[in-house]
């Protein structure tokens, strides 16, 4: 169970097209505006980064495919603004009121931009969940894959790495769990690990079986692998 | 609730993406929910202030200062914070080092996670379906798209940024750069080398060689 954004390993997309080193940061003006409007609306405090990612992911498969990158951003932003009650459908149709909004006091002002961007939004937290794995431990990832809390919900275990044997490489401390946080169910922090997988465990025709892929995975995505990883 | 429904509100906005952004910006501005001057400030920040020159400076420093390099590889956050490289999309940094035996590459297969404070806004190809889909399965094929071929003995390790940890590659220092200072070294380091889709090439002329 997954969505189109979960495309790691997919076959058929063709070559990657590099860009000139002096290519502009934003290809056109509206790309820049789309990014800036999205960041500015985030400051209204009506959603978090996981909710915002999930809003892009649940664009319909048709829209996800035909929309360009920043088109996804601005469309998902419009959806979120209506779903969280900041705007109405009438507003989007140009039939809403132009009165000052109740949230206008939260508007991101130009003079606050530098400090807001510099402050960031760390995802590490204290957690009561005991650390289960140490570097070198063999683990297997969840299978079948998906959000256990919400049907069709957000998760960060890609399909290509579901049900796969790997080894703990790094401990990252405890981080907010997106599967919960994306649905307003709380931060539910738990241990996060970098887990390394051999290409031969992931792909039927690996380019080189000794190549590796590393993913950051939450403890609840993992089980001890008693067979040991290759 | 996943809120899956056929009639997404975004369809009420103009279909042309440039007009769609403009319409939303206008609606939000009229209601006092966004400040157009703040949008200009955000754009200026990522167009002119924060970009791969930051990461290149870190790489050059790591090449010339062994203590800095060690601290950076062990626990990057405090080291980077000291240089002022902290912030949105770079709250939890890990720097991974290329060696003769191991080449690192960074991707976000699920969206477009990228270390903004060090590298700025990701290039189009990093966000493309082709890169996201393919690099985990065929990293050497993707490297070939960038004109890079690795020695046979070098393994590839691809880091898929699935959490809020952000990765940057510390590329190998090219030979023939022993006499170069930090600023000259930083100028050699491309954005792609810090993502792992390029190597750092030796300068064509050694500095000071011209009479």
What is the compact description of this entry?
The complex is a heterodimer of chains A (230) and B (211). Chain A is of the alpha+beta class and 230 residues long.
Question: What do these coordinates show?
Answer:
The complex is a heterodimer of chains A (230) and B (211). Chain A has helices at residues 29-42, 49-57, 61-66, 69-83, 89-92, 110-119, 178-181, 199-202, and strands at 138-141, 165-175, 190-198, 212-218, 222-224. With 230 residues, chain A is α+β, with helices and mostly antiparallel strands. Chain A folds into two domains: 29-119, Cyclin A, domain 1 (Orthogonal Bundle); 125-224, SH3 type barrels, CATH 2.30.30.50. A five-stranded antiparallel sheet of chain A has the order 4-3-2-1-5. With 211 residues, chain B is α/β, with parallel strands linked by helices. Chain B has two domains: 15-47, no CATH class; 51-195, Nitrile hydratase alpha /Thiocyanate hydrolase gamma (Nitrile Hydratase, Chain A, Alpha-Beta Complex). Chain B has helices at 17-30, 36-49, 52-64, 66-74, 76-82, 116-119, 124-127, 129-134, 139-145, 182-186, 191-195; strands at residues 92-97, 102-107, 155-160, 165-170. Chain B starts with 16 loop residues before the first helix and ends in a 16-residue tail after the last helix.
Helices, strands, pairings?
The complex is a heterodimer of chains A (230) and B (211).
Chain A: H1 29-42, H2 49-57, H3 61-66, H4 69-83, H5 89-92, H6 110-119, E1 138-141, E2 165-175, H7 178-181, E3 190-198, H8 199-202, E4 212-218, E5 222-224
Chain B: H1 17-30, H2 36-49, H3 52-64, H4 66-74, H5 76-82, E1 92-97, E2 102-107, H6 116-119, H7 124-127, H8 129-134, H9 139-145, E3 155-160, E4 165-170, H10 182-186, H11 191-195
Parallel strand pairs in B: 1-4, 2-3
Helix pairs in contact in B: 3-4, 4-5
